[in-house]
């Protein structure tokens, strides 16, 4: 069977989304301490590696198989990926798998500098299987939040084109749970700064590039793809302006970390709505998401929860903003009456809110249970001595940088 244009595009889009997890590793790696950059980046790479195996063996089936257990999950063996024979199905398996990879990798940023590696290796497959895949089934696989599902029939179907609820809200609330579970870093109140801002900026740039595949990969028409592309371009640009505005109001100068984080917050916010709002609305959404996330990031210092790399402030907050925004600004179409401002009434806003509440409640409870059980098997936290010295050397026997004097590197000394 010859490749058609649509299949080629899905292959390209999936490769772009796959790149986003290493890009996240750069983004997170630059934000953490110099003595924890290896550990942080490895958490993203191992999240991708483990999820790839889990997804092919059973994760895809749980997220997209025939409904099982009263429509709560897909049958783990009904669409076994290794035996998939339907034309194009393996492309769907691969494309969906890249979403699962970055979803669990996002969580790691909340526990930087203080989490042992072994518990993370256990957490990844369990969370993907028990939390991510069921939520993906509820929204995209015909489960309880879809048009055919129990809650969808009562409250209406929520719009989540590319993962504002499934990916970002889901991962963001899980990140908050792990941050609370592990507690504060020893130097939390010193407000640790990124050790390598060029890495942060490079990671943000690659994330922005990959996000065009993330959002537009499932586009069904040229017109829809064009709308998604423009919205994915303009929302993060507007979010940067919103972030800088909040920095200015706080009396701070515009920062590279703020610009990079603003880009990501705008990308997160446009994810659920990229195919369902007009470009002018995407500008407004970007400004709201950038400002909202910038404000939320500062809350962690006041509330005392140590979300190391601002996963909660960026992914959870912007994911919620982008999801609820559809209740007001969703364009009317053959499947939806549109948002409140288009005369569609309150129905879409209720649908969006119900989906958020269900996913937040389930993800929070399930993540807490998973994290608690793992902690009994192998403790999450490194010792205070390891945290002070740096986690890379102890956990991996490596360091991100080999810093030596020029004379030592050249093999001579002043006495020579």
TrEMBL record:
Q: What is this protein called?
A: Ammonium transporter
Residue ranges occupied by any Ammonium transporter AmtB-like domain in the UniProt entry: 8-401
UniProt-annotated location(s) = Cell membrane; Membrane
- InterPro entries xrefs: Ammonium/urea_transptr (IPR029020), Ammonium_transpt (IPR001905), NH4_transpt_AmtB-like_dom (IPR024041)
What protein family does this chain belong to? Belongs to the ammonia transporter channel (TC 1.A.11.2) family.
Predominant location: membrane
Q: How does it sit in the membrane?
A: Multi-pass membrane protein
Do the record's keywords include Membrane?
Answer: yes
List where the protein spans the membrane: 6-28, 40-58, 90-112, 119-141, 161-183, 195-214, 226-246, 253-271, 277-297, 309-329, 349-371
User: What Pfam families does the record point to?
Assistant: Ammonium_transp (PF00909)
Q: Name one GO molecular function term.
A: ammonium channel activity
Keyword annotations from UniProtKB, A to Z: Ammonia transport, Membrane, Transmembrane, Transmembrane helix, Transport
- Per the record, the coiled-coil ranges are none
Cellular component, GO annotation: plasma membrane
Instruction: State the organism named in the record.
Output: Glutamicibacter uratoxydans
